[in-house]
Amino acid sequence: MLNKLYLINPRELIMSKISQIILILFVTIIIITNHTEKVLSQEHSKTPPSTNPAKPMVEQLKLPNYDTALDSLDYHAPLKKIYAMVEVPDINWPWKTDPIRQRKRIEAVRKLLQNRVFARDIDNIAKGSYLPLDSISWPWQYDETNTEQLITTAHTVNDDLLVETLPFIPEIRTCGLSFTKITDKGLKALFYLPLLKRLWIETVEPETHPLPITDKGIDLISKHPSLEGISMRNLNITDNALKSIAENSTNIKRIDFEGENISDKGIFYLGKMKSLRSLSLSRRGGIPIDTIRPPAPITSQVFEYLSQCSDLAYIGFNFYDFSIEPAKTLLKSIQQFKKLRMINFRNTKLHPLILKSLCDLKTIQDITMLFDNYSVMLEFDEENPISYEKVMYRLKQNNQVPEYYLELEKPYFDEFYSRKWTSSDGRFMHEACFINLKDNQVILKLKGETKEITVPFEKLSKEDQKYV
Question: Which of 193, 206, 252, 412 is the most buried (most CB within 10 A)?
Answer without folding.
Answer: 193
